[in-house]
What does this fold into?
Amino acid sequence: MTHSFRDAIFGVKKRPSSQNGGPLFTETVDRNGYVWWYVDALSDDGGYGLTIIAFIGSVFSPYYAWARQRPGGAAPEEHCAINVALYDGLAPDKPSRGSHGHRWAMTERGSRHVDVSDTSFRVGPSALSWDGTKLIIDIDEVSLPIPARLRGRVIVEPRAIWYEAYPLDAEAKHHWRPIAPIAKVTVEMQEPKVTWQGTAYVDSNHGRAPLESAFVSWDWSRGKQTDAAGNDSDPNKSPAPTFVVYDVHRVDGTRLTLAKEFSVPAPLQAATADFIPPAHQKLRTTGWGIKRATACDREAVAAVIKTVEDTPFYARSVVRSVVNHEPMIAVHESLSLKRFSSRWVQCLLPFKMPRRR
It folds into this structure.
């Protein structure tokens, strides 16, 4: 059913936005809180992928976690970062082409390295800007653990804009807004040298407290029907819908499952419907021992195509499943905030996440 009365009961609201509904980079963030803007994309040929996350109050930063323990807490604007990850060889029949490979960068910076306006957000040499119709991301970073330049431009063109934000916790301190679940992406990287087009997804999360204060873990995925892919870049066709499932385990012992279908039935027209997802199937545990699962019909078998991030507290993967009899390819994330909060993980993180004051 479409979201209206049912969602209103559960505290759906509209987050502040900039022109034409784009991201508002000056949105207020409380001490110890956060806001992030997330982009993921897959190439039309299935071989390439990327994720970009821009943080004010870097929720997965050990430096921010340590600062929050001080009397009075911590200022989120002192812990900003733009995380960029590029992936290659995602499709089994399209092995890595070498010139691209897997590159990952995330340098946290204090407020003196940050320049922000309603429609732009610069952290060090990298920046996001919204021109009213497109999200333009200029990247200039150094990847780790093996240093390598990561430089280029990503342009995301939404097919429509969504305004609603959904609470993820019982106290409504944490909200998720799917800004552009259906979009076209153009990737033009100079270092490494690679160019591709594909489909993209944009959302934003906002919280008035640390993530680990409300959540133990979650599985999240955004999927597309494999037999309907490819229309997102054709303005003359209705694009394939995007399906998003949040399966959230809270610290109070309760559980939340959000399942949303996003579609564009006519140009610039954003439509949302709830659906009942099938039960989650377990996926193979990661090398770091993170458990993960994804929605999949009982008569089908879910499988990991490739794990692109395998860390001590989260995993990002490309998975194959079947949802309500429709074959899906999805970007999938499993997050353990209990593991993130452990001392040994906090001590490991600075080796991959440097900080510039």
Notes: The chain has a mean pLDDT of 91.
